[in-house]
Amino acid sequence: MPKGYIIARVDVTDEDAYARYARMATPVIQQYGGRVLVRGGTCRVLEGEARARNVVIEFDSLELAERYYHSPEYAAARAARNGAAVADFIAAEGA
């Protein structure tokens, strides 16, 4: 079965609020079996437009990735992120 991934591209506008969001989201990622592969760090734009922060989380399946994102536990973290960042999130199936 292919892995599932949550890919987020983020421009943080409030560091403190975003840090609170990250603290809330981390245990939920673990609860759904997610493994953070990329979280921040150096990023070089090779083509197109980018955001300042990139996150890639691997799950055992696309279904689990989507269950994590739509879970009530993560909804609370998403609410904490409101106003703290401009972000694009996608769920993608691995090869």
Structure description:
The protein is an alpha+beta fold and 95 residues long. The chain has a single domain (4-93), classed as Alpha-Beta Plaits (2-Layer Sandwich). 38% of the residues lie in helices and 32% in strands. The chain is built from 3 helices and 4 strands, in the order βαββααβ. It has helices at residues 15-31, 62-70, 72-81, and strands at residues 4-12, 35-39, 53-59, 85-93. The chain has a 4-stranded antiparallel beta sheet with strand order 2-3-1-4, covered by helices on one side. It is globular, with a radius of gyration of 13 Å. The relative contact order is 0.37.
What's the average pLDDT? 95
Spatial order of the strands in the main sheet? Answer: 2-3-1-4
Sheet having the most strands: 4 strands, antiparallel
CATH class: Alpha Beta
Order of helices and strands: EHEEHHE
Can you count the beta strands? 4
N- and C-termini, Cα separation: 10 Å
SS field, number of helical segments: 3
Structurally, how many domains make up the residues? 1
Low-confidence stretches: none
In the CATH scheme, what's the topology name?
Alpha-Beta Plaits
Name the helicity range.
25-40%
* Named CATH architecture: 2-Layer Sandwich
Rg, rounded, reads: 13 Å
Shape estimate = globular
User: How large a portion of the residues is in β-strands, by DSSP E?
Assistant: 25-35%
Q: Return the structural class.
A: alpha+beta
